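Hi U.,

Before I forget, here's the chain from the pilot set. I'm dumping it here mostly so it's searchable later in email.
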Amino acid sequence: MSKIVKESKVKKPRKSKQKDLWIAVCLDESGSMNSTRDTVISGVNEFLGDRAKDSEIRPVKIWINKFNSKSTTLVNGEDAKSVQNLTKETYSPNGWTALLDSVGESVSLIDTAIKGEKVKPDVVVLIVTDGQENSSKEYTKETVKTLIESRTKEGWNFEYFGSSLDTFNDAKSLGISKGQTIMFSAAKTGQMLNSNSARYTRQAKFGTYTAPEEIV
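Structure:
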């Protein structure tokens, strides 16, 4: 009687889980942004379209918090492919500049989401503003600076895109380095986002973060 020899199963090595890329945008919606409303909308939408393409390379999640006299979360940790475009209904500049509340709330939302992740994601927080803080009620400059410095030590990257003459001082006061800060014309907000979009694609492909680039 012949014996039945069972084939041994060869275990394939497990692939390490690729890190997600999480990008949060703190977007100025104060009254002074009204003159650049159309270019901001088109620029953000192109930016979102590029991130949706990047999600074919590795998972990309998006947060968007807009701020005028108060901060409002538009997108809370959604897959980049499912994020809805900005419209004139969802982006309507008015009021003052609650920048600190926007940054603080964005960090808080990511902190909550990251607790359930076994593999910690790469996190980028991008602040886009044409002015200075003048309306926050929940967060102070000191508390936001502490948050930024703490999360930077954990590997997060904070970027500050500003069009105020005090942009570099404003960013520095929040603990964001000069190398992570860009000053530009508010009329070129959309162009600034698009000119830096390729950086995030490279990060999605290779997992390597590079600093912001000025408009050429």
